[in-house]
Design brief:
The protein has helices at about 5-55, 65-70, 75-80, 145-175, 180-205, 265-270, 395-410; strands spanning about 70-75, 85-90, 90-95, 100-105, 110-115, 120-125, 135, 140-145, 220-225, 230-235, 240-245, 250-255, 260-265, 275-280, 285-295, 305-315, 325-330, 340-345, 350, 355-360, 365-375, 380-385, 390-395. By secondary structure, the chain is of the alpha+beta class. A hairpin with a 2-residue loop joins strand 19 (about 350) and strand 20. The longest helix is centred in the N-terminal third of the chain and has 51 residues, at about 5-55. The protein starts with a helix and ends in a 9-residue tail after the last helix.
Length: about 425
Amino acid sequence: MTPFIRAALMGSGLLLLLSGCAGGPTAETHKDEHEEGHEEGDDHDGHADEGEKRGGEPLDEHPDEAATAQNVLQVSDDLKRDLRVSTVVVSATVGAERVVILGELRAHEDALASVSAPIPSRVARVLVSTGAQVRAGEALVELESVDVGRARATLISAQAQANRAQAALERKRGLGEIISKADLEIAEAEAAVTNAEVRAAEAALAALGVGRTVPDPADGRFVLRAPIAGTVLDRSVTAGAVIDGEEVLFRLADLSRVQAEAHAYERDAVRLQVGAHADVTLSALPGVTLSGTVTRLGGEIDVASRTVGVRIDLPADPRLRPGMAVTATVDAMTSGAEVVSAPSAALQRLNGGWVVFIPMGADAFEIRPVSRGRDLGANVEVISGLTPGEVVVLDGAFLLKAETEKRQSGGEASHEH
């Protein structure tokens, strides 16, 4: 055997020996690891299939925590510099309910008067102006009417006939037995007829609304007078104007007697009663609260507005004027049910609903959706979302709402997580 062939055989034997030493256990180990890897791959494929069923997105191992994070507002350093927060504890009361209703001031119905011409007339003189203070019976305007002149002339003629008949009767009675009984009876009858004509003429004149007296000189002029003492609220007449018998010429009111005419929704009206106390505020008089009493509740519901009229009598105040807007907070009948309430400023409008902000530390606030109920004066009923004893943000709630809206719309602070 040549040296070259012997060297080749020795190399092949060495290769086979190395392969035999490494082939058995090493191959088995590789096979096991491959099978384990294949099993793990199967598990991975299973997750991938489930992910595909959910639209290809990875599974959220903690969905509740993710949902909670979306309802938490993290306050940035910039916002903290401007934010001034005060809090209030949510309370619950039993039966302490008040109803807030809106309305306007009006002159008291017993202290209001309108003055119209009783018949078609022409305005001779206007004697008062708008805003004037007048006494009861004071002349407001002087009018002139042909019908009044004719009625007065008829009365004057009837009175003259009656006077002549009465004088003739007296003369015949003075004749004693000289005159026959028949002639005396005729004279008495004539006097009675003329007296009746006078009364008829007076009634016709009074029916025109100008009284039964005839001025001197007798003409068609007459005066309209104030039926009450008060202020001339409105004057719709000028000298020389021709007016009909239905036009209102003056509106008068005693402004020392005013009342609020408010409007309560039907769900609130059923809890109100006559005699209830009311606190009334006016936008024209900031800081002023008047104490009133409910004196009338409407007997029917306005089908257009679904409200009931509520009348509230108020004390005399020279600052009050009919037409002023008012807000009345009225004591309602107690129901005995527990009412959860919070200051109205704590509830903020967000995304079409109501929310409150609950402190979760120095830099975080929970955004809690709530259901708002009735207005209770400065507070508002919270139907759901809060329990008595929870703490909500009062001052600063509006700024937190604005920051939340900014982030939801992709504003400046949207990069924070």
